[in-house]
Amino acid sequence: MNGKLKSNLLFNKLCYASGDIFGGGAFMIFSLLFMNFLVLVEGLPVIATTIVIFIGRLWDAITDPIMGRISDRTRSKFGRRRIYFLIGVIPVYISFVMLFYSFGIQSEIAKIIYYTLSYMFFGTVFSIVMVPYNAILSDMTSDYNERTSFTTFRMIFSGGAALICAVIPSIIIKSAGGDQNGPQQIPGYLIMGLIFGAVFGGCWLVTFWGTRERKNLPPPEKITIKTWLSVFSNAAYRNLLGIFISFQIAVDLVLALFIFYIDIVVLQYRNYELIVGTLLVCSMLLMAVQGAIAKKKGKIFPLYIGIPVWILSTFVFIWLDAGVPLIILCILAALIAVGSSAGNLSTWSMLTDVYDIDEIRTGKRREGLYSGMTTFLRKFASGIAVLLMGFGLQALGFDHNRYSELKAKMTDFDPAAYAQSNVVLGIKWMFVIIPLVLLSVCLFFALKNKITKQRFDSVLKGIDEFKSCGNIDKLSEQETADVLLVTGMEKVKLWGG
User: Fold this and answer.
1) For 212, how many CA atoms within 13 A lie in the half-sphere containing its CB?
2) Percent of the chain residues topping a pLDDT of 70
3) What is the CB neighbour count within 10 angstroms for residue 416?
4) Which among 167, 210, 310, 444 counts the fewest CB atoms within 10 Å?
5) In the 3-class helix/strand/coil scheme, how is 321-354 assigned residue by residue?
């Protein structure tokens, strides 16, 4: 590969990866601050907040498969995916600001309705840009290792954005609204939303500028319920869902519970930024290592290392209390990062391979369909999980407002006594058991994975043979066996036969 081609490829990778500045950054801000903002700043009840999030995620999940099919059917001079990066620039900015500002609404019921609608609007915009984004990589390259490289760049940008968004927003909020977590921080949240909304909107201009798509696409198909459900006949996709959804929900819930564990179980809220920063820095740094491993050993292999490390580190949290040294918490955060970086790289890079496996099964390119259905299932399951977590915290008797009041009145607050309460023990066991179960499910499905580089290359060769000859008779015996194993189909039924 000559220097100019390498330079162009690097440019494409950087521009492509810029899209997940929004994905990783907005997700981190939402995960760390949105529930805190609604409960402690806007004064909404915990259960009302979890219902807002559940409704928003349910709506978000519904819009994802719809957006997937819309992007599959779109035909424009800017492509069927890239056009939505351009369309989404302004809505991304507006929707993010609306998440953290209620324009002076005072009524609790009105606020609940407003933030429900705001989150639904944000979810719709998220679908408009992220569903085509998740689908476009297979158009940019069909090379197994290059897709891993593109995904590695994406995850590094995503991790870097998450790191910045775990630290800088709180600095902005405190600078403009004070250190006390409460209604006086509303101006700080508004300024934070205006700044990061502009950053997230701008990153889609870069992604639009530096990505490319296939040309000469076939006429779009009619959208039906049967078409949406047809993805589940793909055995490779069903196995990927087992890996993807269990891992992503584990990440969602661990992030949601992390601040509660640090603040309430080990009483180290003053060090929270350092601990979560350690996790995110290590995740970002390890992404390049995981990418190199995936290129050499296959996309699934990082999971065989990362998930067991995360599982083993989770057991340690059982024995921690308020006396744990900060260095131990940072080491455990780094070990969790080994698993999170492995899972993010493997799951997202493996998803693009499913599109080609579907093509040799059906003779159709349906990236948007798979991207939309995958994010739908992930968000729906995550919404249910967060809702159940909220009810679980309420059942434990958790009241964050009451806890904050206790800490503010240090003469009345006994950390040792509070550490023995049902709330603390319940949060501790939730933080341990939930990831153990979900990560074990993830590893189970990972061990059943059948897609390797050799088999994927056989699939690509088979697609080329179908396009030129209408069959795969010219494939070697081993290549044919690889195709049939990965697709789980008989030879005569391939390519829609």
Assistant:
1) 10
2) 93
3) 10
4) 444
5) CCCCCHHHHHHHHHHHHHHHHHHHHHHHHHHHHH
- What residues contact 379, with CB distance under 8 A and at least 6 apart? 57, 58, 60, 61, 64, 123
Query: What does the block give as tokens for 194?
Result: 């205006």
Helix (H) or strand (E) holding 358: helix 326-362
pLDDT in tens, 247-282: 999 988 888 788 778 877 888 877 877 898 899 889
Cα angle 256-271-37, degrees, rounded to a multiple of 5: 40
Helices (H), 269-421: 272-297, 301-316, 326-362, 367-395, 400-408, 415-418
The mean pLDDT value for 186-210 works out to 96
Please check whether residue 361 is in contact with residue 459, taking contact to mean a CB–CB distance below 8 angstroms: no
Indicate whether 174 pLDDT > 70: yes
Whole-number Å distance between alpha carbons of 386 and 249:
9
Q: 3-class DSSP state for residue 290?
A: helix
Cα distance between the two ends of the chain: 38
Tokens describing residue 79: 């492509």
Q: Which of 21, 332, 8, 324 is nearest to 160 (CA)?
A: 21
Q: Distance between CA 153 and CA 20 in Å, rounded?
A: 10
